[in-house]
Structure formats: structure tokens, C-alpha cells
Structure prediction request, 291 residues.
Amino acid sequence: MFSGSMVAIVTPFDRQGKFAEETYRQLIEFQIANGTDVIVPCGTTGESATLDFDEHEYVIKVCIDQINKRIPVIAGTGANNTAEAIQLSKNAKALGADGLLLVCPYYNKPSQEGIYQHYKRLAEEVALPQVLYNVPGRTGVNVTADTTVRLAEFNNIVAIKEASGDITQVGQILARAGDKIDVISGDDFLTFPMMACGAKGVISVSANAIPARVKAMVEAAANGDYSTARQQHLELLEFHTAMFIESNPVPVKTTLALMGMLEAKVRLPLVNMSDATLEKLKTVLKKYQII
Prediction:
């Protein structure tokens, strides 16, 4: 249902730390102009954990309004409180979102049965296509292949964003339930190998800054041109790695600031990039002729 080059779009803030709406609208236009297939507001890269309830809803509203049905919007509405995730998801549905991105509950460290029941409740309560999001490096718990296969039985659970870094797990999901649930890469540096196994695309951090290049690689892989896709993947690998030189989204926001597209402002407990790391990032960006 959702495929191609999808961007986990940043949430820009002004110097006072408030949502920079006009900048956000310009970032969306930049994505559409460069061929991005789907926009995902309020994910990890969108600093959803530091948005209050009203801000979260408003950022999604602005995204849907600016896109105006030109491409799909998958709204990030996950939470570690199931009731809160349901409420955020219902709000996004009412605003006109095309789908939901639902991070595995973080901090609580639920059992696999708890994860299953959490997603089961969301599937039953909110009639929208839903994308599970497995990112154990941030949540503290892995959504196993067994649990994903169980959840694939729900018609409105259409995909999983896999950021476990485990290609074997990706293969297990595709082998056992690839006819029922799509896999989407959640790690830019693993998109090509995941697509070679059958993944449908990526929800990308790097695409915030280089949307056309990410789209070209994903499109080549989707068309079965693995020689071209492999070459592009290897060429972009250093850039993808640089986007995680500090905690996401600090590097990608810094990159966008150096490109003149927003203020390099993140919310505490994140802080701006250190001077030493900034110099390393600038070296990479110059190599890619971004600055």
C-alpha cells in the first residue's frame, strides 16, 4: 500500500523553540518537488517525543493541509500508553491522514504478548492502514518476527517499518508473511539489502536533505535494476552514516541548517551538535557537494 521513497520529515523550530510552520510548509514542497512518495510527520526524526498533544495534532494538520492529497501522509501516532496512541491515531484519522506509523511502546519494555495486544487494540479501534515501527535501539524491546507474523493477520496492519538492523529477521517476516504485510526499511544504510530481499522502500532520514538521490536508489531497486541501485547505495553510505554521527535528528537538522533551509534548533534533552562533530559532518557534506 505504501512504497517507495518516504521521508520521516523533521519538525522545524524557530530560535525560541516554537514550531516554525512556514518553514515546515517549505520543507514539504521541497520533498514533493524532488519526487518523495510519502511524507511521515511526527516520527522519531520529527521529535514527536518533545511535542505536546496539541502540537502533535497541529503539525500533522499542517502537513496534511500543505500536501493537499498530492501524496500520502502517514502520521506518527505511536506512544507507550495504548490509550494515548489510540487518541492520537483517532485525531490523525479525523484530520485526513492516509495511514499511521505506530512505534513499539518504549520504556515500558512489554512482553511480546503485550506488544501484540497493544497493536491489536489499535487495529480494532482505528480504521486506518497501520504501519508498525520496530526500532529496538530506541524502545528497548524488539518486535520479533513471530509477533509481526501474528499481527499480519489484521487487514489494516499493512506494513512494518523495520529498524532492528537484523536482515535475518526481515527475511523471516517476508518468508512467512510477505503476502500479508509489507516491510519498509527504517535504516537508510540497509535499504538496498532489504529491498533485495523484498522490502517496498524506506522511511528515510537522509531524504530530508537528499530526497532526489534517495528516490533514485529506491526506484532503481524497485525496478529490479540492482546494479544501479547497488552503486547508488554504496555512494550514499557515508552520507547515511553521517546522519547518525550524533542522535537523530541532530545531524540531519544541522545539515538542513547548513543548506539554509531551517534553524538548527532541537528541543531538550537533545542539544546542538558539538563543534568537533560539526566539523566532521561538514567534511562529509562538502564531499557530497551539499554545502
